[in-house]
Each structure stands twice: as C-alpha cells, then as structure tokens.
Write a structure and sequence with these properties.
Radius of gyration: 26 Å
Number of domains: 3
CATH architecture of the largest domain: 2-Layer Sandwich
CATH superfamily of the largest domain: Tetrapyrrole methylase, C-terminal domain
Structural class: alpha/beta
Helix content: 40-55%
Order of helices and strands: EHEHEHEHEHEHEHEEHEHHH
Strand order of the largest sheet: 3-2-4-1-5
Number of strands: 10
CATH class of the largest domain: Alpha Beta
Bound molecules: S-adenosylmethionine
Number of helices: 11
Shape: elongated
Length: 276
C-alpha cells in the first residue's frame, strides 16, 4: 500500500500557531521533507519531535521530488513543510503535489497559517471574491504586463513582497492603478511588530518615502470599480428609436444615445436610419 503525502502548514511568525494536528502529523510521519532543514529543525526542536529530514526546495525539486515519490510508493508517509506558512502556496510543493497526485499517491492537506489569508481577513477590504497574485514576476517587462492585465480586475488582489522591493513595487502599483486605489499593507503578521496600514496607493508611496520598509509584507489591493455593462449597438439603436418615436430629431437622439452608451455615432446612425 502506498503512503500519504501530508502538507503541513507551519507558523508564519508565532510558534503558538502550530496546531495539535500538525504536530501529531509531523510526529507520525516516517520522514519530513523540508524547504530548509535548519529552519524546520528549530520548529521540530520546539515541538520535541525527532524525525529524519530530507531537503526539498526550488533548486533540487527535480531530483528530490522523484526520490520522495519512490519512498511514498514503497509505503512510507511524508510530511512536507516549508520555512513558514502553507506548503505549495508561493512555496515549494506545488510540483510534488502534482507528481504524487499523478502517481496515485494520496495527498492530505492540513489547514493552518497562510500569510495571504491572514492578510486578507484583516485588510478591511472586500473578501467575498479575491485573486491571489503571489510574487509579481521578477522581470520588469513581465511585471508591467501582469499589472496591465490586472488594471480592470474587480476582485481584491493579494501580493507577496520582500522589503527590499517594496518601494519599487508600490511605485509600479501606483502607476498602474492610480493614487486613490485602497491598499492594506500587512507587515510582520503574527509577530511582535505586526502592523496593518490601511491607506491609498498614493499615501503608501508617500509613507515609504520617509519610512524604511522592514520585515515581511503582504499587500492587499482593492479591486477596480465595476465597469458599466457594455451596451450592444442593436440595443443602443432601439433606445435611439424610442426617443425618435417620442418626437426627438434623429440627429439629437443618435447623439444622446451615443454619448450614454459609448456606441460610435456613425454606427448608431447607420443602424437607426436603415430601420426607420
Ligand atoms: N507559503 C507561505 C504562506 O502560505 O504564507 C508564503 C511563502 S512566500 C515564500 C513568503 C512571503 O509570504 C513573504 O515574502 C511575505 O510576502 C509573505 N509572508 C510570510 N510570512 C509573513 C508574515 N509573517 N507577515 C507578512 N507577510 C508574510
């Protein structure tokens, strides 16, 4: 019988956030796959758990993943942890989950700390619909293209960012979304210096002109204003004809409806006169 891959979330700052089930799962697993074994060892020492550790990270996943899969297929169980938070969410693990699922190995995800969800819940922005964007691409051209596509995104958006890139990222967000867009800057969540700043993009850029970015950040950005539903040319023509039937001159009716609906005047005029 094959073993199970357990995805075990770990605290994003406060060690008290490790759940009893996570600790029990770590203690029961045959071995633990960790992003940085030194970081995970601190947590395991805190929990007084002794377990064989193997390393699984971005730069060795191609070799390490198949070795872990082999052990799972042979019946061992593995707990996957990363340095902090939920494995596979902007963290190593996504590929291992796919590898295991594809090979028919059961994958069991335990709920627990995740910086994105913690920030969203405290942001005071709409939480009903949101888009997780993780880290923006490192290349400037790709970052620009990503932000361009997000300009009309109406859902609340969540970004991860490192302190040394915060100022540059805020400047790019300002350029893409304008100074009035609401932003919740969630810093050092669950830690001693936790700070939530709820402001606009313009205010955030000004704030960090005189304050040094420090610690870990999640940026929660309010969505774009809802776009008015586009009116089809046929519907616009029907609206214009209703005005004409009410006694308005064709030219005036076309002008008014073109302005209200955004349908070009020439298109609308051609449609209206062809049907009069
Ligand atoms: N998988 C993790 C999770 O689900 O929370 C995220 C890992 S990602 C490599 C690390 C990023 O998460 C950081 O750069 C930061 O943007 C965010 N982050 C992690 N811990 C945080 C904290 N305590 N406060 C604010 N942001 C945090």
């Amino acid at each position: 019988m094959t073993g199970t891959l357990y995805l075990v979330p770990t605290p994003i700052g406060n060690l008290g956030d490790v759940s009893r089930r996570c600790a029990e799962t770590l203690a029961a697993a045959d071995f633990i796959a960790a992003e940085d074994t030194r970081v995970s060892l601190k947590l395991l020492n805190h929990l007084e758990i002794k377990k064989p550790l193997v390393s699984y990270h971005e730069h060795n996943k191609k070799e390490s993943g198949p070795r872990i899969l082999e052990r799972l297929l042979a019946g061992e169980s593995c707990a996957l942890v990363t340095d902090a938070g939920c494995p596979a969410i902007s963290d190593p693990g996504e590929d291992l989950v796919r590898l295991c699922a594809g090979a028919g190995v059961p994958v069991c995800a335990l709920p627990g700390p995740c910086a994105a969800i913690t920030a969203l819940s405290v942001s005071a922005l709409p939480t009903g619909r949101f888009a997780f964007e993780g880290f923006l691409p490192a290349q400037k051209k790709e970052r620009r293209a990503r932000l361009e596509r997000l300009k009309t995104e109406e859902r609340t958006q969540i970004f991860y960012e490192a302190p040394h890139r915060l100022r540059e990222t805020l400047a790019e967000l300002l350029e893409a979304f304008g100074p009035e867009r609401p932003l919740s800057l969630c810093r050092e969540l669950t830690k001693l210096h936790e700070e939530i700043l709820r402001l606009t993009l313009g205010e955030a850029v000004r704030y960090y002109e005189s304050n040094e970015p420090r610690g870990e950040y999640v940026l929660v950005l309010g969505g774009a204003e809802e776009q008015a539903e586009a009116v089809s040319p046929a519907r616009a023509a029907a609206l214009a004809k209703a005005l004409i039937a009410g006694g308005m001159r064709t030219k005036d009716a076309v002008k008014q409806i073109a302005e209200e609906t955004g349908v070009p005047k020439n298109t609308l005029y051609a449609l209206v006169v062809s049907e009069l």
